[in-house]
C-alpha cells in the first residue's frame, strides 16, 4: 500500500468488532477470517468468502468504499476508474491530493488494459507480480487524473492475497491504498480501523491479521526504487541485470 508503515503506537482507534451487518442490515458487513495467518499465493476462496467479495464488488460498482486484506496491510478500495469514487478515498483518508494512489488489479493482463508499459516495465510486472511490489508505468487514457495527481504514470499493484485478487477480479481496477488516515499507522487487523475509515466503508472484509510489511515501489524505466519494502533486494538485483 502507499501510506506510512504501521507503528506500535500509531494504530487507528477501534470502533467495534467489525461484525456489524453480518445479517445484511447494519452499516457494514465484515467477513470472518477463514484461516490462520495470511496466505501468500493465489488460491480459490470458500463460498462464504466469495459471497462477501461479490457484495463488496457490488458496493464498488455503486461508487462506495470497501476495506480488504492484502499480503501487506489492509487496503481501502474504490473504483479506480471513477473520479468521484477516487475522490472519496482521498477524503476518507485525509490524503493530500498531490499524492497519487496506486492502481489495484487482479492480473498483469488486467493492468495492460489500462497502461502502456515499456518492454522493461512489462517484464518487471510479470517478474514480481502478484506480490508486495508497486511498479510505476505509463498510464492509459482510462486512468483518471485524480488517481495519479495529474501525473502521466501510475503505480500498479497486484496483491498476492486470494481475497484481494478475487475482489480485483470481481470489481475491476480498485484503489490500492492503506486503510488508514494519512499520517497514522497502517492497519493489520480490522479492530485497528479508525472511525473515519470505518464509517466511510460500505463493506469490511476480515482476512485476519496481515503481516504489516510495505510494498516496494519501483520505477523500472529509470531504475529507481522509490521505497524499499518487501523483495527490495531481489528487485534491485533484477534491475542491475537489465
From the structure above, extract its key features.
alpha/beta; disordered N terminus; 8 helices; 242 residues; DHBP synthase; globular; 10-stranded mixed beta sheet; 10 strands
Into how many domains do the coordinates divide?
Answer: 1
Tell me the CATH topology.
DHBP synthase
User: Given the C-alpha coordinates, what overall shape results?
Assistant: globular
How many beta-strand runs? 10
The averaged pLDDT comes out at: 86
Question: Which band does the percent of strand residues land in?
Answer: 15-25%
Terminal CA distance:
26 Å
Q: Helical percent range?
A: 25-40%
- What is the H-and-E element order? EHEEHEHHEHEHEHEEEH
Structural class: alpha/beta
CATH superfamily: DHBP synthase
Q: Give the quaternary arrangement of the chains.
A: single chain
Count helical runs: 8
Order of neighbouring strands in the sheet with most strands: 1-8-2-3-7-4-6-5-9-10
> What ranges have pLDDT less than 50 throughout 5 or more consecutive residues?
3-27, 31-42
Rg is 16 Å
Describe this structure in words.
This protein has 242 residues and is α/β, with parallel strands linked by helices. It has a single domain, classed as Alpha-Beta Complex (DHBP synthase). Helices cover 29% and strands 17% of the residues. A 10-stranded mixed sheet has the order 1-8-2-3-7-4-6-5-9-10, sandwiched between helices. A hairpin with a 4-residue loop joins β9 and β10. α1 crosses α6. The protein is globular. The N terminus is likely disordered.
Amino acid at each position: 500500500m502507499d501510506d506510512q508503515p504501521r507503528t506500535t503506537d500509531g494504530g487507528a482507534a477501534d470502533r467495534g468488532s467489525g461484525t456489524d451487518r453480518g445479517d445484511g442490515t447494519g452499516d457494514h458487513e465484515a467477513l470472518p477470517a477463514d484461516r490462520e495467518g495470511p496466505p501468500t499465493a493465489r488460491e480459490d476462496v470458500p463460498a462464504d468468502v466469495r459471497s462477501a467479495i461479490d457484495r463488496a464488488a457490488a458496493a464498488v460498482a455503486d461508487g462506495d468504499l470497501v476495506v480488504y486484506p492484502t499480503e501487506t496491510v489492509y487496503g481501502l478500495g474504490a473504483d479506480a476508474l471513477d473520479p468521484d469514487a477516487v475522490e472519496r478515498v482521498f477524503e476518507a483518508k485525509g490524503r493530500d491530493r498531490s499524492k497519487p494512489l496506486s492502481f489495484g488489479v487482479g492480473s498483469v493482463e488486467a493492468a495492460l488494459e489500462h497502461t502502456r508499459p515499456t518492454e522493461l516495465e512489462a517484464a518487471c510486472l510479470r517478474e514480481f507480480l502478484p506480490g508486495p511490489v508497486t511498479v510505476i508505468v505509463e498510464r492509459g487514457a482510462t486512468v483518471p487524473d485524480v488517481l495519479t495527481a495529474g501525473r502521466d504514470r501510475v503505480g500498479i499493484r497486484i496483491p498476492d492475497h486470494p481475497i484481494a485478487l478475487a475482489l480485483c477480479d470481481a470489481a475491476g481496477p480498485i484503489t490500492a491504498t492503506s486503510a488508514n488516515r494519512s499520517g497514522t499507522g497502517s492497519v493489520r487487523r480490522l479492530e485497528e480501523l479508525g472511525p473515519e475509515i470505518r464509517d466511510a466503508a460500505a463493506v469490511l472484509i476480515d482476512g485476519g491479521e496481515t503481516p504489516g510489511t510495505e510494498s516496494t515501489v519501483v520505477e523500472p524505466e529509470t531504475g529507481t526504487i522509490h521505497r524499499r519494502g518487501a523483495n527490495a533486494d531481489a528487485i534491485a538485483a533484477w534491475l542491475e541485470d537489465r
